[in-house]
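SAMPLE LOG
Freezer: B-3
Tube label: C17
Construct: single chain, 309 aa
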Amino acid sequence: MKTQGNRKLYLAIFPMIMLSIFPIRGFCLKLDVNLPVKQDSSLVTIANQDPSKWHFSIHPSLGLTLGMTNNDAIKSNSLQWLGTLISNIDYLGKKMDFSSSLFAQYGQSKKSGEAAEKIKDAFILSLTPSIPLIKRPAIRLFLETTGETNLGKGTLQNNPTGFCDPLFIYETLFLGQKHYSYQKDDKVKWELTYGLGYSFQQTFNNRFQIENNLTGSRQGFESGFNGLLEFNMDYALDKGVSFNLGSKAVVLSRENIFSHFDEARKSILLNTGIFIRKIGLEYNYHFVHDLNLSLFSMVDQSLMLTLRF
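STRUCTURE (predicted):
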């Protein structure tokens, strides 16, 4: 990609990165807007609604594994670490809602006498405003923009990768429903979003070589129908004990989804964990099927004892 094209690309993703940092800043400042929420008639009516319009959550965690082996009188030490950052921000208004989610994960494995090897790498940022469209049934119009890339340098099947190389971006306009519960005194907070629509997709690359030229133009847009399902939940089981679940599944078709379903981009992101104060057991699963990136489906999953900050 040319330098000028890179500048345009960074200018395009800069607002997304700034918005992803915003919830972290809001968390540090303990921002709390005590304004009454007027319940949106197109959403589910919930009693005892939390009066705050803004809802923030941020879950950074770090897992470490130390190992020592002794084979044929040769000692070898190893260190494996995995850092995860999950952040969400929601604005609930009468005329418009806004949701932003960030999932970032990076990990390495280091053995004595060998160079560090990257084992996990993901950066996924989504921005989704929505407005009520029909009151009965409760239908909303969503506009979601999502970017997916890596944080560091590495390889994918001997193909070099790096930050924004490749960078997959899709923008979808879809009709669906959004249900949530942010009750002030309830131990459970959850949010459910689903819908069907039409999306535009593009994969940016520099050194990374696109595997399959599905559209006849590697830098051209791809488009097609799409489906989306997202569910998030925070559950305070007991004092100091909490359970978190975040999941999202997206299908982005290219041309006809029924006759070319294998060419559709399919992704599933799941992160869940149970924590006792700062220590917990965390599981992450990331599935991607994208013929532009690889002929094979890519799966990353991890189960680790982690420390939450």
